[in-house]
Each structure stands twice: as C-alpha cells, then as structure tokens.
Amino acid sequence: MPELPEVELISRSLNSLVKGRTIVSAVLLREKLAPGISGESFADSLRSATINFVHRRGKHILFDLSNNKTLIVHLRMSGRFSLLDEDATDPKFTHAVFYLDGPRLVFDDQRHFGFMKIVATNEVMNAKELSQLAPEPFSDEFSPAYLFRVCRSSRRNLKELLLDQTKVCGLGNIYACEAMFMAGLAPQKQALKISKASAARLYGSIRHVLSQAISHAESRTVDPQNLEGSYFSGLSDAGWFVYDRENKPCLGCNTHISRLKQGGRSTFYCRHCQIR
After folding, report:
1. How far is the CA of 3 from the CAs of 15, 126, 175, 239, in angstroms?
2. For the whole model, what pTM was predicted?
3. Cα angle for residues 168, 156, 134 (degrees, 5° grid)
4. Half-sphere exposure of 54 (CA within 13 A, CB side)
5. Which of 104, 111, 129, 238 would you label with 1, given CA atoms 20 to 30 Å apart?
6. Pick the catalytic residue: 76, 156, 259, 265?
7. Phi and psi (nearest 5°) for 20?
8. What count of Cα atoms within 13 Å lies in the side-chain half-sphere of residue 199?
9. 265 catalytic, yes or no?
10. 135-190 confidence digits (pLDDT tens)
C-alpha cells in the first residue's frame, strides 16, 4: 500500500499532467469505488469541471475542481492512475475513466479496494475520511511535544500506534519500521512508556525517513502511463535498513534482522539496536 511519500509523488505528478485540463465526461465502471453515489450522479458532478490543481492530505489524493467540488481518492492496496492516449487500451481492471480535453485519465484497481468520493470543496477537510487525520508530519502541529502526548495516551505497542492515521499521519508498514530503527526503539514497547527524549528521536526519524523517500522519488522519471511505477517503496534499490530484511545482517551491528507479526502485519527490526 502506498505511504505518504508515494502519494506525494503521485499527487505532484498528476498536478503537472492534468492541472488546467477539463473533464469532458467521466464514467464510473465499478459503482462500489464511489459508495453512496450512482454512476450517473458521479458523471454529472464532474462533467465540464476544470481541474484547478491536485494535492494531498495524508494518503488521500485531492482533485480541486472549478465547480467548487473536490474528488477525494484513496489508492488503497492496488489503485493506479494512468494518463492514456486515444489509441491505448484501458487496463484490465479499469474502474473509472475521466475523459479530458486531451488524453484520458484512467483509474484501475486489481484488488478492488480503492475509494473515491466527491465533496464540496469548502467542506473537504470536514469529510469523514480527512477530518480525523493527525497533523501532517511536516507541519508545525506535528512536533516532539505532540508525539510525546500521543504516545503517553495510548496502551498500544509503538508499531500499532504509528500506523494509526488519527495519531501519526502518513506512515505505513515500511516507514514505521524504518523510523523505529533509526530512533533505536523496540516495536513491541508500549507507547505510553516512551520517554520525552525517545519521542523527540522518533519525531526526527519519522520526518527524516519520509523526506529521504520523497527526495529519492523526485529524482526518478515519471511514466504518465504508470504513475505508480515510480514508487520508492517498491524499488529493489530502496536501501532499507530493516524492512523486508529478515535474517540479513543489520547494517548497524551485524545482528540478523528479526520479523514479528503485529496487527496482522510483519514488523522488521534489530534486536540489538532497538532495545530502548
């Protein structure tokens, strides 16, 4: 599942590709993609709207439209956008098509978990999907003091807390593992036992791993026909310290990396380096 750096890359790429283009028509091929609205209403709400810009909140992509509406999109496990020319064939699992004044924008989703919703732009941040999200990790609201308060208020283990988007926004399995390793914190540690100093280290490591991933992704060539192909998290040369490195030597101490299940997901960590 894409995490904040990937969604940031995709929203930036979409903004550069479709900003200023008009949605001539839209077709919702799988109505469960946009629950609560019919395919006809979905098309009517988008018809003739110009895309002012594309931006992001958390892991959600937001299309700001000229008709005072915003299209909220969550890619979930396998959602994917492609900008296709007239002679290109739609992907097998295409669920929505946006016919622009130029190439068409196609959304396909093999796992069928993607999500779309159309809301009034002046109410977008009050939408259920966005209103409860934690502060953006690069905002002033996200601070060492904020993270310490959040940790001290939870009895969950640290890894599960970091994946809660209402507590820490944008982290998924990969960057949570990397941030805990950089901070030297054990994923099993109860969040409320995190010290102020540890929270400060974790705050710094979260911002570092996210900014490094965004910087790495910015240097890659974007393919309009496969925007998600530039995912940093899916690259073989990503250079993870612990993620997906079970039984490989820790790059810090040479101890073999361990894996455990937390909340149904694999956590990778170093038993020697992450003991605090």
Report:
1. 18, 22, 8, 16
2. 0.93
3. 15
4. 21
5. 104
6. 265
7. 90, -10
8. 21
9. yes
10. 999 999 999 999 999 999 999 999 999 999 999 999 999 999 999 999 999 999 99
Distance, in Å, from the CA atom of 170 to the CA atom of 4, rounded to the nearest integer, reads 5
Residue 27: both structure tokens together: 């077709």
Active site residue 59: yes
What distance in Å separates the CA atoms of residue 110 and residue 97, rounded to the nearest whole number?
15
Tracing tokens 């937390």 back to the chain, one arrives at: 262
At which residue do the structure tokens 């919703």 appear? 117
Active-site annotation holds for 2: yes
Question: Is residue 12 flagged as an active site residue?
Answer: no
Catalytic residue among 12, 56, 59, 201: 59
Q: What is the 3-state secondary structure (H, E, C) of 132-181?
A: CCCCCCCCCCCCHHHHHHHHHCCCCEHHHHHHCCCCCCCCCHHHHHHHHH
| pLDDT tens-digit readout, 29-62 | 999 999 999 999 999 999 999 999 999 999 999 9
